[in-house]
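queue> holo job accepted (iron/sulfur cluster)
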Amino acid sequence: MSTQLDVQFNSKHRKSPVPVIDAERCKGCGLCIHFCPKKIIGWASHSNTKSYIPAEVIKDKIDECTGCIACVLMCPDVAISVYSYSQVTDQSLHNSEAILL
Ligand code: SF4
Ligand code: SF4
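queue> job finished
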């Protein structure tokens, strides 16, 4: 099964920052959706294991991420990371060892 991380990192033309939302940490407050200036975060179509509908990066808009980290700063559950494309490799990102912007 493809995870959101797979979808995000494998986006064809990835050169921009890589926002990643941990759906299991998300409590669905919506702050990241409200404050993302590029409006690239929306709601997932399914709830997480705690029955919250988590936020999700909109696949088709991910390349518009500017790396401003407004979403990271707003999230009360520390569920969002934004990675620099140039600082990560596929393997390091999957191992959560990538460097935060
Ligand atoms: S880093 Fe900025 S542009 Fe990118 S998803 Fe977060 S709030 Fe939106
Ligand atoms: S700000 Fe954090 S907890 Fe709130 S919806 Fe976004 S990812 Fe979920």
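queue> The radius of gyration is 12 Å.
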